């Protein structure tokens, strides 16, 4: 009648990103003349992230002329997966999207 609950602690690694995992249970009643019951949950995809403890590095010219265009470079070392990150530039109260 009572649900069975088992908890595991698993330490994820960067290389585990995107790996499928599932829960499998077995109830072996063969010693009582019955059978082995087993089932597996639907798989789930593990998503791992590394959030660096350092601040982003912003490269901009120290002086710019009004009306001119200039490059801005923002980097964050160690972020994983970088393809899932979104980068925004905020100038005053305006958001700028990368080109």
UniProtKB/TrEMBL annotation:
GO terms for molecular function: integrin binding. GO terms for biological process: cell adhesion. Residues 56-97 form the Intercellular adhesion molecule 1/3/5 D2 domain. PANTHER family: INTERCELLULAR ADHESION MOLECULE, INTERCELLULAR ADHESION MOLECULE 1. InterPro entries: ICAM1_3_5_D2, ICAM_VCAM, Ig-like_dom_sf, Ig-like_fold. This is Intercellular adhesion molecule-1. SUPFAM superfamilies: Immunoglobulin (SSF48726). Signal peptide: none annotated.
